[in-house]
Design brief:
By secondary structure, the chain is mainly alpha-helical. It is built from 9 helices and no strands. Keywords: Endoplasmic reticulum, ER-Golgi transport, Membrane, Protein transport, Receptor, Transmembrane, Transmembrane helix, Transport.
């Protein structure tokens, strides 16, 4: 564990807490992509198949459980909560996310470290996480205006991946046998997808104005 990974984990956790706060406080999921949330739930379930077989640390196990439970809870609220589900922007959330799932699965079957059940699905989860934000970004661009909590959620989600890139650089420089090239390349792709959002987030922060994305 190093400071960059810990910062990444905490900003990831903060992003989820911000989203849960938005849903709980406003009883609304307006501006949130259900398809992105479904993709993240699938990411965590397939990545942490080793939860009950490989113990690394209490911290590691707790974080795995937290991410699985919170992502599942968000999907449940958006689909089943009698009040929250009314605010879901279904007309704007039309990204064909199943193509992302299929594409990442095919890629994982071709490019992986070891051809085992857990390793293939681990690679699948890494590839899928890299592009899972796409439905959310498309929805925000279609809606134009972004409310404060939704903007903070996406910002912290992007910051989490940026910290993880620093974590990989640190590990590459300090560990003799560092081999996580699948994570590194996917992380760079994922961070690049946030570049446009970060630019407009900075502009809104600099001008103290409401965050708006070009349609």
């Amino acid at each position: 564990m190093n400071i960059f990974r810990f910062a990444g984990d905490m900003t990831h956790l903060i992003s989820i807490l911000v989203l849960l706060l938005k849903i709980y406080a406003t009883k609304s999921c307006a501006g949130i992509s259900l398809k992105t949330q479904e993709l993240y739930a699938l990411v965590f379930v397939t990545r942490y198949l080793d939860l009950f077989t490989d113990f690394i640390s209490v911290y590691n196990s707790v974080m795995k459980v937290v991410f699985i439970l919170t992502s599942s809870a968000i999907v449940w609220c958006m689909r089943r909560h009698r009040i929250v589900k009314r605010s879901y922007d279904q007309a704007l959330d039309t990204f064909r996310h199943l193509f992302l799932v299929l594409g990442c699965l095919v890629l994982a079957l071709i490019v992986h470290d070891k051809f085992t059940f857990q390793e293939v699905f681990w690679a699948f989860s890494i590839y899928l996480e890299a592009v899972a934000i796409l439905p959310q970004l498309v929805l925000l661009q279609r809606s134009g205006n972004v409310d404060n909590l939704t903007g903070q959620y996406v910002f912290f989600l992007g910051a989490y991946r940026a910290f993880y890139i620093l974590n990989w650089i640190y590990r590459y420089l300090t560990e003799q046998h560092f081999r996580l090239w699948i994570s590194c390349i996917s992380g760079l792709v994922q961070t690049a997808l946030y570049a446009d959002f970060f630019y407009y987030y900075y502009i809104s922060w600099k001008n103290n104005s409401k965050l708006q994305l070009p349609s």
